[in-house]
Design a protein that fits this description.
Blueprint lengths: L1 H13 L2 H4 L1 H5 L3 E6 L6 H13 L8 E6 L6 H10 L6 E6 L1 H7 L13 E5 L5 E6 L7 H5 L5 E5 L5 H13 L3 E5 L4 H9 L5 E5 H7 L1 H6 L2 E6 L14 H4 L3 H15 L3 E5 L5 H14 L3 H9 L7 E2 H11 L4 H11 L3
């Protein structure tokens, strides 16, 4: 009995408080979800759904709130999570996973080692497509290919699908594209397209479908190309970029610069240095939320796809990005760097 009592007392002093009193730590607390996109965009839509359900899966049932932190193609949110947020397990957030590739390629403004993030997970692996408003005069890929002037494509900036995928399509398929960058989120790009400021943009079908549904249903918006190897079940008649690229190098460029980062576009992470036990709590709660019946019912109603990756899965993908062949890396950097 003396030995048992001693070990119990020792654990209270030696083990991190969160591993022993997880429920007491989170009870009555608020966990912030920092969203690198604007309200109404895809990142925001997924995050608000997660916030409504994830608290039930964290010991102590804390409240979860969403904070939008826009700017610099989600780099501001990423940098905040990396170095400004307290490493206490009370904040995690989403930024664009294309920034991870940007770090590999030496993108300006990414002066921190993204490999040090603690990965929470990914709710859905993106299927990137380009959707254009019919007022642009482009309702099909054939229209785009034969356009007499470059088609204006809206984007946040380099380091995300809205900026990187059009550049890759321009380089590998010679599509006439004029980049219009600086938008805070895809919601702003949609409004710009509806108003005739740009033709459209390239980003995840998982966001296009629920957030631009009225335009799709009315025929005002058309998906004209998929930047993928396999068609999405909803887009079986839309051409695939990989079928149209004529050389292997072009396919490798799109695979490394588009497909790989698209699997972790909606990556949730928390601050380096967060106690491992609290990281584990967030990872487990995140995974369990995505399997929660109430969550799934609401996701289905909102037409939000769920195709998750765990924190460990994300870590492996990040490792793969950092192992891209040097020759391919050099060519990607030349294509994706803003001129």
């Amino acid at each position: 009995m003396k030995i048992t009592t001693f070990l119990v007392l020792l654990s209270l002093f030696v083990l991190p408080r969160g591993s022993v009193f997880a429920q007491e730590f989170y009870a009555g607390k608020t966990v912030r979800i920092i969203v690198g996109g604007s309200a109404g965009g895809g990142f925001d839509t997924y995050s608000r759904l997660i916030a409504r359900h994830m608290g039930r899966h964290i010991p102590g049932n804390p409240n979860l709130v969403v904070e939008n932190m826009t700017g610099a193609a989600t780099r501001i949110a990423a940098k905040y999570l990396f170095s400004a947020a307290q490493p206490d397990g009370l904040a995690f957030g989403i930024f664009n996973g294309y920034l991870l590739l940007g770090r590999v390629l030496g993108m300006k403004g990414l002066d921190f080692d993204v490999r040090k993030f603690e990965w929470v997970g990914v709710p859905v692996q993106d299927h990137v497509a380009c959707a254009l408003h019919k007022s642009s005069g482009v309702t099909s890929l054939k229209d785009w290919q034969s356009a007499k002037t470059p088609v204006k494509i809206g984007a946040l900036g380099p380091g995300n699908s809205t900026g990187d995928v059009p550049r890759l399509l321009r380089a590998t398929l010679d599509l006439p594209i004029h980049m219009v960058e600086g938008y805070k989120g895809t919601a702003d790009i949609r409004l710009a397209a509806d108003g005739g400021e740009v033709a459209g943009a390239c980003w995840a079908w998982q966001s296009i479908q629920p957030t631009w549904s009225k335009g799709l249903q009315s025929g005002d918006v058309n998906v004209v190309i998929q930047a993928t190897q396999k068609p999405h079940p909803d887009l079986t008649k839309v051409p695939l970029a990989f079928d149209l690229i004529k050389n292997e190098e072009g396919k490798q460029l799109l695979r490394a610069g588009g497909l790989l980062p698209s699997t972790v576009t909606r990556v949730y992470a928390t601050t380096p240095g967060t106690p491992k036990n609290r990281v584990k709590i967030l990872q487990t709660a995140f995974s369990n939320t995505l399997k929660d019946k109430a969550f799934m019912a609401e996701a289905e109603k909102a037409k939000l796809e769920i195709d998750p990756l765990t924190g460990n899965d994300v870590e492996k993908t990040v490792g793969e990005m950092f192992n891209i062949d040097e020759g391919l890396k050099s060519k990607l950097k030349a294509i994706l760097t803003a001129k």
